[in-house]
Write a structure and sequence with these properties.
There is one protein chain. With 349 residues, this protein is mostly beta strands. It has helices at residues 4-11, 159-173, 180-183, 261-264, 323-337, and strands at 30-37, 56-65, 70-74, 78-83, 90-95, 98-106, 109-115, 122-133, 154-157, 185-186, 189-191, 201-203, 220-222, 227-228, 230-237, 242-244, 246-247, 257-258, 282-291, 296-305, 311-317, 344-345. It contains five helices and 22 strands. Residues 1-25 form the signal peptide.
Length: 349
């Protein structure tokens, strides 16, 4: 799309546009915008809120670069603007020597002004998306490799116990077992702690676990386990207590979130469907402690605020029996003690 009129508007006290990525929000859409432009106007103090009586309207195109830190308008040439260090919704740059400042209001709307040198005035813009797409942000949200824990820093959750625990929770909450994996998130590994990583120990010949005879007096090395029988299960509830489908995919912290296909749709595309599922209000957690060597077969149930992760209610139930029966009864006791908060479930999309 040619943009010759764009530069002319600036030469008669007009020109420019850009786009951005709002803090904590979705990135600004890339694509074709319609720009409403004023003629020469007194400079606006603070953010431009809009252009109620535009002098003219013209099409422009916006590109998003460098993970949203640079916005580029394509006119007679490429004009980059840089994200402010203090406000990620604010972008600054220049056009033909004139200062340009723009602000992002939403993924499909931004406003701004270019101050004309040598005069007490400028040109004001309001840009609204006509047709576009979500910019490529691949790799932008990935944490630095140095901040991630390797597999050597984690313990694998006993797979058989994990499967049993999912079934126990599903039965307690009335979730069909063939759908349990969509509503119930059970970690497959947990971070090692100082308690779980005591290092290599040695025991003397003749002691339990060391079959070596005393002849030669060799000790037996005992390595710390690479599996754990502590199982954590998480579920998400809406404000009415209905279970939401969950996932941890794409999360470096393995934190559970709502698995909503509607939320991953390109919201910048024409006629993009709205999110189908509500936000999570609370997180329900079960923590199973099946530590046979210590005679522990207990379950803790907890209810958290989904946003702040602050405990609302919690109860610890001691298993009175070994095995699955003890775990099942303890889970039921703990769940009822926090008020049996689940009222139903959302249909899977």
């Amino acid at each position: 799309m040619t943009m010759t009129t764009f530069s002319r508007v600036f030469m008669t006290f007009a020109t420019f546009l850009i786009v951005s990525q709002a803090a904590g929000a979705a990135p600004v859409c890339e694509g074709e915008y319609m720009s409403a432009v004023t003629g020469a106007s007194p400079p606006v103090q603070g953010k431009v809120t809009g252009v109620p009586n535009p002098y003219r309207e013209q099409p422009v195109r916006i590109d998003v670069k460098d993970c949203g830190r640079t916005l580029v308008i394509h006119g007679d040439g490429a004009i980059p603007l840089k994200q402010s260090a203090n406000d990620p919704t604010h972008y600054v740059g220049s056009h033909q020597g004139a200062p340009a400042v723009f602000d992002v209001w939403s993924p499909d709307r931004l406003t701004g002004q270019i101050l004309v040198p040598g005069s007490d005035g400028g040109v004001i813009f309001e840009m609204t998306l006509v047709e576009g797409h979500t910019p490529d942000m691949e790799g932008c949200g990935n944490p630095e490799q140095t901040n991630t824990k390797s597999d050597d820093d984690r313990l694998t959750v006993d797979p058989a116990l994990r499967s049993e625990v999912i079934s126990i929770v599903a039965d307690e909450l009335g979730v069909p077992r063939d759908q349990a994996g969509r509503y119930i998130s059970a970690l497959r590994s947990v971070a090692k702690t100082r308690q779980s990583d005591e290092g290599i120990t040695e025991i003397m010949p003749g002691e339990p676990g060391c079959p070596i005879e005393l002849t030669g007096v060799k000790t037996c090395k005992v390595f710390p386990p690479d599996t754990t029988t502590v199982v954590e299960v998480n579920l998400l509830l809406d404000e009415d207590g209905r279970l939401l489908p969950v996932t941890t995919e794409g999360s470096a912290t393995r934190r559970v979130r709502v698995d909503d296909p509607g939320a991953t749709t390109d919201f910048c595309a024409p006629d993009a469907p709205e999110t189908k599922l509500p936000e999570a209000e609370r997180r329900l957690r079960f923590k199973f402690f099946a530590i046979d060597e210590d005679g522990i077969n207990d379950v803790q149930a907890g209810l958290f605020d989904a946003d702040t992760d602050i405990f609302k209610k919690a109860h610890y139930a001691e298993g009175k029996y070994k095995g699955s029966r003890g775990r099942s009864e303890a889970a039921g006791e703990a769940y009822r003690a926090i008020g049996s908060p689940v009222t139903g479930r959302h249909k899977l999309p």
